[in-house]
């Protein structure tokens, strides 16, 4: 076996994976890796990139740049123009990010699921009962970004950003192994709920960007601050930012999860199934006819 295949085999061992990614000083490790990833010294950069490739199928063929100043520079890379065509259909909400589709479907009252048998409540995710009521009996889709994916996220439709609610929290890993073991995991971690008012319907959808170990930082292009676990929370930042479908909204400093919430009547598009891969701009939800 090669070194890479051996390491991947160990990483797939659930008990060992959970131990290595969660039973460590998560915040300290996150800050240390965040600092190391920004080091631009060529040897450090090259060793970091080599280690990253050992654990992931990194594909940089659609990246705008071919050389990077640091590991972090590669993590938040931009893509070549046209690399992610945006579906133009007016009745379609597109995926805001490259991701693997996780749990999704109807919201049962205000209850949704991180995996089968592990429910959590909208009010715990969003930080208030009022925010949760907007999506009572609505629909949700969980989008998980892996380490090697493109980490920027985009507007799912023509809309205005109304508010960003930042909620400080922990940095548990949010991979499938942890989701099957830690209850209310998304509600424990640092997260930013970004509320968008759709131009087409006047209804609100919310993208909840959930951070994780090594990735506890979210950057939004329309805010002059970085949202990370060193800041207090929860706190809501009012906004009034117009976005066209496909416009870049921001990025995870490394990558993590987005939970999309929509009102009743919205349904997943054909082909949306747990475990499938989706890219920015591809069909995700259908807007009900008015």
UniProtKB/TrEMBL annotation:
The enzyme's E.C. designation: 4.1.1.65
Keywords associated with the record: Decarboxylase, Lipid biosynthesis, Lipid metabolism, Lyase, Phospholipid biosynthesis, Phospholipid metabolism, Pyruvate, Zymogen
Classification via InterPro entries: PS_Dcarbxylase (IPR003817), PSD-B (IPR033177)
Pathway: Lipid metabolism; Phospholipid metabolism; phosphatidylethanolamine biosynthesis
GO molecular function, one term: phosphatidylserine decarboxylase activity
Record-linked Pfam families: PS_Dcarbxylase
Group of enzyme by EC: lyase
Cofactor(s) listed in the protein's UniProt record: pyruvate
Keyword Cell membrane belongs to the record: no
One of the GO BP terms on file: phosphatidylethanolamine biosynthetic process
Regions that span the bilayer: none
Name assigned to this protein: phosphatidylserine decarboxylase
């Amino acid at each position: 076996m090669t070194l890479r295949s051996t390491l991947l085999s160990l990483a797939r061992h659930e008990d060992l994976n959970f131990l290595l990614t969660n039973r460590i000083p998560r915040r300290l490790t996150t800050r240390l890796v965040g600092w190391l990833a920004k080091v631009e010294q060529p040897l450090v950069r090259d060793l970091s990139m080599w280690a990253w490739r050992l654990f992931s199928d990194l594909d940089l063929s659609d990246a705008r740049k071919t050389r990077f100043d640091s590991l972090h520079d590669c993590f938040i890379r931009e893509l070549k123009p046209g690399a992610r065509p945006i579906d133009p259909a007016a009745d379609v909400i597109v995926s805001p990010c490259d991701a693997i589709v996780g749990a999704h479907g109807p919201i049962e009252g205000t209850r949704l699921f991180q995996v089968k048998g592990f429910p959590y409540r909208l009010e715990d995710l969003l930080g208030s009962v009022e925010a949760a009521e907007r999506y009572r009996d609505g629909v949700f889709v969980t989008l998980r970004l892996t380490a090697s994916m493109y980490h920027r996220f985009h507007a799912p439709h023509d809309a205005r950003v109304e508010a960003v609610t930042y909620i400080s929290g922990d940095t548990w890993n949010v991979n499938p192994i942890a989701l099957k073991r830690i209850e209310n995991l998304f509600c424990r971690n640092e997260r930013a709920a970004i509320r968008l008012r759709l131009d087409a319907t006047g209804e609100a959808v919310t993208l909840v960007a959930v951070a994780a170990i090594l990735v506890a930082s979210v950057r939004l292009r329309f805010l002059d601050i970085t949202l990370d676990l060193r800041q207090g929370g929860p706190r809501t930042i009012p906004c009034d930012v117009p976005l066209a479908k496909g416009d870049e909204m921001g990025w995870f400093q490394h990558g993590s999860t987005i939970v999309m919430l929509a009102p009743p009547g919205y349904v997943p598009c054909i082909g949306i199934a747990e475990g499938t891969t989706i890219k920015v701009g591809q069909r995700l939800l259908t807007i009900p006819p008015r």
